[in-house]
Structures are given as C-alpha cells and as structure tokens.
Amino acid sequence: MDAAGQPAESDGDLIRRAQAGDSEAFGQLVMRHMRPAYFAALGLVGSREDALDLSQEAFARAFRARRSLDPERSFYPWVYTTLRRLCFNFLRDRQRRSRWVTESADWLELAAVSPGEDPEQSAARAEERRRLAAAIGDLPDHEREALVLKEFEGLTYREIAELVDVPVGTVMSRLYAARQRLAAVLEGDR
After folding, report:
1. Which end of the chain is more exposed for a tag (fewer CB within 10 A), N or C?
2. What is the distance between the alpha carbons of residues 18 and 23, in angstroms, rounded to a whole number?
3. Where in the chain are all domains bearing CATH 1.10.10.10?
C-alpha cells in the first residue's frame, strides 16, 4: 500500500512508466530499492561514502538503460548485478587494501560502548571490531559477497544464488569457506 492507502505499483508498472518518460516512476524505483543496494555496497566495499557513490552509480546506469529493462523481470536483481560489478571493480582498482580496514569500522559496529563501560572492555571491543574488519576484508571477493548478503542483508541461500547467478550449492560452499577463514583468523589471534 502507498501513502494514500492504494495498492503499490509493481516494479514492472514503474519500469513501463519510466520507459514512457515518467522520471517520477523511476524515482519510486530508486526509493524502493536504494536501501538494500546501499547496504549491499557497504558490505562489499566497507566505506559509507564509497557505498553511496557506487549504489547511486548503479541506479544512474539503470536510468540510462531504462529503455532496455524488461518490465516482466524483477528490477533489483538487475541493479544488484550492476552494483556488484561496480563494487568488485572498485575493490580491484583501489590502491591500498588497508584503507578498507580503516573505513569498514563504520559498518562493523558490533556493539556500542555502554555508558559507564570499563575503558579496558571498550578497548577490547574496539580491537575485536578491528580484527573482524580486517579478517572480512581479507576474504576473497566472492566469499565476502556471500557473507555480506547472508549475514548483513539477511538473504536466503536461494535469493543470493539468484542475485549472483550461481547454484545454491555454490553459495553454501562460499559461505562455509568464508566462515571457516574467519574462525581460523579470529581463533588464531587469541
């Protein structure tokens, strides 16, 4: 339902309107899908600013390609495919990998510091966040992507498989490998 209590238009209807020149319809598509796109990018690249830029670029590309979009197919998988390509290219081209570790602390807030929390506990939490961010940053791109989509976006195995165009078994093996690598790194640091 929309704000007026009317049934919300489908993505297909909005795509058709956008293809006919209705920029407001495309704006509705963006509003509908910007949040999951932003958080997917954030999970992949680790920086708020870069995630915003990359997700906006994915929607800009969708707008430029709106005439070729298929109204019978879901819009978000198209945007996500573009977004993941942009994110992986960004990561590949980034000069220093260590920048990801510093920026990722923004999205990997595992727990806020409680008022009155012991400074030693606070420092230990900060160190744990840093180690986790570094471990996630060191995962191969396809494993990090599966982990982010499952653990941070809450998608099912099937949804991930459809988004990244791989079999469900491949998603499961990527997640297993990512979790094993994280466990090995984090247990090895103790």
Report:
1. C
2. 6
3. 118-190
